[in-house]
Amino acid sequence: MAVKAKVAELPAEQWTVPGAVMTLASGEIRLRGGKCRGCGAEVFPKPKVCLACWSEEIEDDPLPATGKLYAFTVVHVARKGWRTPYVIAYVDLDNGVRVSAPLACDPNAPPPYDARVRLKVGEIGRTEDGRPIMSHQFESA
Ligand SMILES: [Zn+2]
Q1: Which residue among 11, 30, 100, 132 is least packed, with the fewest CB closer than 10 Å?
Q2: How far, in Å, is the centroid of ligand 1 from the Cα of 89?
Q3: What is the 43 CA–ligand 1 centroid distance (Å)?
Q4: How far away, in angstroms, is 60 Cα from ligand 1 center?
Q5: How many Cβ atoms are within 10 Å of 125's Cβ, its own excluded?
Q6: What separation in Å is there between the alpha carbon of 129 and the centre of ligand 1?
Q7: Domain that holds residue 25
Q8: Residue 7, pLDDT score
Q9: What is the pLDDT of residues 83-141, one digit of tens each?
Q10: Domain check: are 81 and 132 in the same one?
Q11: Parallel, antiparallel, or unpaired: how do β-strands 86-93 and 98-103 relate?
């Protein structure tokens, strides 16, 4: 008698921060931040608890898709599957929220400090079984 095994299907792609990117009704992509209903603090990624006032009432907060480059460094040794070298950056979004993300650029010629950048999504590597590793990223605006 043949036994049919149920094999869980792997997702087609893997995300560095699952659920981090949301698509607005307009089709525009945004980072899914969290805005505290208690104190108004905005952060990324959306937390379960506000780190400023401990409120658990956090709502989705589509963050601005643009900002400026605050700081960055070139990564030569990364998680398995990630393409190297790559640039990891801190970006100050237009509402003041600071986020960390890969910067899509030539690691030998990154943009200058304070350069205007905009959000995008893209593949940053491949899993051992060949699935794309996707991430929110920024690129020169
Ligand atoms: Zn709060």
Answers
A1: 11
A2: 26
A3: 10
A4: 13
A5: 19
A6: 41
A7: 18-63
A8: 61
A9: 999 999 999 999 999 999 999 999 999 999 999 999 999 999 999 999 999 999 999 99
A10: yes
A11: antiparallel
User: Which of 36, 22, 106 has its CA nearest to residue 64?
Assistant: 22
Centre of ligand 1 to C-alpha 116, Å, is 29
CA of 82 to the centre of ligand 1 (A): 35
pLDDT in tens, 91-100: 999 999 999 9
Predicted TM-score of the model (pTM): 0.87
- Region for residue 64 given its phi and psi (left: phi exceeds 0; alpha: psi -120 to 50; beta: otherwise): beta
Are 56 and 77 in a shared domain?
A: no
Give, in order, the Cα–Cα distances in Å from 118 to each of 2, 41, 48, 69, 113. Answer: 54, 22, 26, 10, 14
In the reported structure, the alpha carbon of residue 85 is separated from the centroid of ligand 1 by a whole-number distance in angstroms of 37
The two three-digit tokens of residue 70, written as one number: 């605050």
User: Rounded to the nearest whole angstrom, what is the distance from the C-alpha of residue 25 to the centroid of ligand 1?
Assistant: 27
85 φ, ψ to 5°? -75, 155
Domain count, the chain: 2
